[in-house]
Write a structure and sequence with these properties.
about 100 residues, mainly alpha, two-stranded parallel ribbon, 2 strands, elongated
């Protein structure tokens, strides 16, 4: 039978639970509305948002999702992060695909 550990043995969060969203979670853009996309960026940070390419349960063209990101995110650099560089960084492929990664000026 499972028992909870004694209270003095329970791990404590070192940060507020909401702060873990900016370092422990990635979200994708497939499906959410424009307000939801903005909320995801606010909660997790633009560096944690990936462009989702799976085909959701409601048949929608991927172009609609591309347009949603283009129409919702005004900054071109943030759109590039969502569409490519965040995924390259997460998968540690940035060094393998230098032509896809923005170069420092």
């Amino acid at each position: 039978m499972f028992q909870n550990p004694p209270i003095q043995k329970v791990d404590k969060n070192l940060r507020k639970p909401s702060e873990y969203f900016k370092s422990n979670i990635y979200v994708d853009t497939m499906g959410p509305s424009a307000p939801c996309l903005k909320a995801m960026i606010e909660m997790c940070g633009v560096d944690r948002v990936l462009f989702g390419t799976d085909f959701g349960p409601v048949p929608m063209s991927p172009k609609l999702h591309i347009d949603r990101v283009d129409d919702t995110i005004p900054d071109a650099g943030d759109r590039k992060k969502i569409f490519s560089t965040n995924t390259l960084a997460l998968l540690r492929l940035a060094e393998s695909a230098p032509s896809l990664v923005p170069q420092a000026a």
